[in-house]
Structure formats: C-alpha cells, structure tokens
Amino acid sequence: MWVSSETHEEYCKGGASRETLEIALLETLRALGPGDDKPDRVRAGFLTKVIHVKERMLAREEEITGEWLTEERMKNKHGWGKYLVFC
C-alpha cells in the first residue's frame, strides 16, 4: 500500500479528514513542480506534508477568538463591575 492503513482509513471517512489529506497532496504536488513523477519523492513529500497540514488545521481550530470591549460595554453587556476588570 502506498500510504499507511491509518491514512487510508482517514481518507475513507470523508469530510474534514479527507479534505486535510487532499490539501496535503495538492501542496506536495505544487511544491515538487510539474514533471516530477518519481513516486518515492511524491510519497515522502506527501507523508511529511500531511503532518504539517494536520498541525496547521489543529492550530487554526484552537485559535481563540474574542471581542474588544470597553469598560462601559463590559459593565452593560456582561454585568461586570469595576473591580472585575483586569488591567
């Protein structure tokens, strides 16, 4: 098999797992350029890229989003008092 059974199962699951693998393959092919048809180079690049793409997607999911609030909005919107605001 060209990839591990784990990678094969992830692809068969579909959804986000498949999308991650497809992104990794496309990025690998783009990095290698046209005409690079050596299977070993493509495989090694793909397996390395899968790790990088998974880490990038995980970091994106873990990104914390928030909103900027003035002290007045914190008080009105969330009911926070003056002493609960940290400077």
Total individual domains: 1
Q: In whole angstroms, how far apart are the ends? A: 57 Å
- Give the total of beta strands: 0
Note the beta-strand portion.
Answer: under 5%
Number of helices: 4
Uncertain regions: pLDDT < 50 for 5+ in a row? none
Mean pLDDT: 80
Overview of this protein structure:
This protein is mainly alpha-helical and 87 residues long. The protein has one domain (1-87). 68% of the residues lie in helices and 0% in strands. The chain contains four helices and no strands. The chain is elongated. It starts with a helix and ends in a 9-residue tail after the last helix. The mean pLDDT is 80.
Write the layout of secondary structure elements.
Blueprint: H1 5-13, H2 15-32, H3 39-62, H4 71-78
Helix pairs in contact: 1-2, 2-3
The gist of it:
This protein is mainly alpha-helical.
Based on the model shown, name its key terms.
mainly alpha, 0% strand, 87 residues
